[in-house]
Design goal:
The protein has 10 helices and 6 strands. It is an alpha/beta fold and 230 residues long. The chain is globular.
Length: 230
């Protein structure tokens, strides 16, 4: 359903958000929370994955907050929305905490994962993180994701990037995959956040990656993480 009729023009500096959830009460609560923020605005709502795709194409939001379990939702909806190639990033909001949902969200092109049980504390931070082009996974989800991946990975599937990236670039990619922000990585490596961003950007260029979600997925496959990481 299109809820934007009659809306006035809004500052372009705001993060434009589409809410996709089949529960009207949930959408209403999220809208109240988000529109209380000076840097966010809800531009449209959707009740299922098909409508979410149509509304994304029509309103071109920066962030789509999508319930993983809504009708016609799931990984196919995430792939379809990101496949529009208009810059919309998908932030999954779900009741599921199991590891089996985490990696598929990233593989489908999702940029973040927030459990509904922690939305009141994590959602605003997640939106701003994803809007900066970063990946958001809460610490518990990150550890679950990495353990699950390491448990499934086979040696023959790992990628050799030793001759592609410098030692410092590998360190930055590893910290990125472990869920650390540029600020946290800078403190750990005794660098400035800007320098960390530069190393990450350089690594992405060398690897032919276009966003931070792809960088996380690549680091997982490349075997940059060990059991000690999680």
């Amino acid at each position: 359903m299109d809820t934007t009729a009659g809306m006035t023009e809004l500052p372009t500096s705001r993060i434009r958000i589409l809410l996709a959830d089949d529960h009207g009460v949930v959408r209403a609560g999220l809208r109240a929370l988000l529109e209380a923020q000076p840097d966010m605005v809800v531009v449209a709502e959707a009740e299922d994955g098909v409508e979410a795709l149509a509304q994304t194409a029509a309103h071109k939001p920066g962030i789509v907050i999508a319930d993983l379990s809504m009708p016609h939702g799931g990984m196919e909806a995430i792939s379809a929305i990101t496949g529009l190639d208009i810059g919309a990033r998908v932030l999954v909001l779900t009741v599921h905490a199991e590891e089996r949902y985490l990696l598929p969200v990233l593989e489908a092109g999702g940029s973040g994962y927030v459990r509904k049980s922690s939305a009141h504390t994590d959602l605003l931070d997640a939106i701003r993180t994803v809007a900066r082009g970063e990946v958001f996974l809460d610490p518990a989800a990150t550890k679950t994701l990495l353990r699950g991946y390491l448990g499934r990975a086979r040696i023959g599937e790992e990628l050799d990037i030793g001759e592609v990236l410098s030692e410092r670039e590998r360190e930055v990619v590893k910290l990125t995959a472990e869920g650390y922000t540029a600020q946290q990585g800078a403190e750990m490596l005794s660098l400035s956040p800007k320098t960390v961003e530069t190393y990450r950007h350089r690594a992405m260029q060398k690897l032919g990656l276009t966003n931070r979600a792809e960088l996380v997925r690549y680091a997982l496959r490349a075997g940059l993480l060990s059991e000690e990481s999680v």
